[in-house]
Amino acid sequence: MSDLQDNTKAMVLSPEEPHPLETFNQDATSEYFVICEHAGNRIPESLGTMGLSETDRQRHIAWDIGARAVAIELSKMLDAPLYAQRYSRIVCDCNRRPDVAAFTPVRSEATDVPGNINLTPEASAARAREIFWPFHNAVTEALEDRRQRGIPTKLVTVHSFTPVYLGQKRPWEIGVLFNRDRDLAPSVADWLKDNTDLCIGINEPYAVGDDTDYAIPVHGEQRGLPCVEFEIRNDLIADAGTAPHWAAILRDALVGSSRTP
């Protein structure tokens, strides 16, 4: 089979391939609930290489480098559930709605994604059906279960970003992203600015929006949960050995800000 997507193929994942959801501390009852939507760069066997080199499949265009390791350490430190997503964002971006073009990007930064060019609606829908919805339905079920059990929940998502984008250097080391939340995220940002020497981006290098994001608007804002998205510059966390250090910074910001009068 060609390395490019066969739009007539009905199934994306074979029965032997793993479920999109990877969980850690699943039954923990901490007030924090952690999500990592771009944790993995796995590509289903049916899609081959999607026309990309091995080097490109290891780049940020395919996943959030270092985010999974930080999220796992944060889950341990907070004794919080972590729901991580295994498949590459070039297959389908699990932090975008399935009805937007960026869900199956034909170009990521300056790199074309041949496996997404001329993708049929049926092929895109199959990726949503087999990867996006199983992951997000599991998150929905977990959050609803916590609501029914009366467990207070603060939603935290963990991402990473590139130090240079389209030739422009990005000075921030941690970005704190939010939209409607005025409870958790602004307090976390203030704590980081007051208690660290890090360069903190407030809604930098991205901002959360209904058209550009999914987890925070749907799982957080629509449920009325305090919520925050962290972005860490990926050159700082590319080595998995740095994950405990950066997870501790996020933990201290989350816990410390909640104690601020």
From TrEMBL:
Q: Where is this region: Disordered?
A: 1-21
Q: Which Gene3D superfamilies match?
A: Zn-dependent exopeptidases (3.40.630.40)
Query: Pfam families of this UniProt entry?
Result: FGase
SUPFAM superfamilies found in the cross-reference section: Zn-dependent exopeptidases
InterPro entries, from UniProt?
A: N-FG_amidohydro, UCP029730
Name of the molecule in the record: N-formylglutamate amidohydrolase
Source organism of this protein record = Hoeflea algicola
